[in-house]
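Researcher: Good morning. I'm working through a list of sequences from a screen, and I'd like to move beyond sequence-only analysis. For each chain I'm collecting a predicted structure so we can compare shapes side by side. This is the next one on the list. No need for commentary yet; just the structure.
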Amino acid sequence: MNDEPRLLGRNGEIWRAYLDGATQEKIAQRYGIVQSRVSAIIAEVRASIPAPVLADIMRDEADRVAALYEMTMEIARAHHPVVSLQRGEVVPGVEDAGPKLAAINTALRIHERIARAIGSDAAQKIDTTAAVKYTYEGVNVTEV
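Model: Good morning. C-alpha cells for this chain:
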C-alpha cells in the first residue's frame, strides 16, 4: 500500500485491519472506540480512494477471490477417502466429509465477504400486504 494521508495513523491501521478480515466490533475493542466510529472511518477511507486506484484494487481482489473460490471448489468436488489408522489403508466405500464441509464453509465465508464488500448483505425494507378472513364457527353473529 502507498503512504497516502488516508492510510496514515490510526485510520490507516483500522482500514488495514478491516481489509485483513477483522470485524468492526473487534477493531473497535482494539482501539477503544465504538463500532459506529469504526464504520465511519472505514467509509471515510473508502470514499477517499481515487476511482482509478479503486478500480485496480477491485480487479485484483476479484481475481484473488476467484482463484481462492476455484481452489475451494476443487476441494469440495474431490474424493476424500477414509484411511484406517490401524491398517494404514483406504476404507472402501467410505468418504471423509470433513474436507468437503470445510471447503463449503470457506466458500460461504468468501460469499459473505463479497456481499459485505459490495453491500448486498445490507438489510432491505420489504413492504407486504396480506388478506385475512375470519370464520366464526358455532356463533350466530346476528345475535351478538
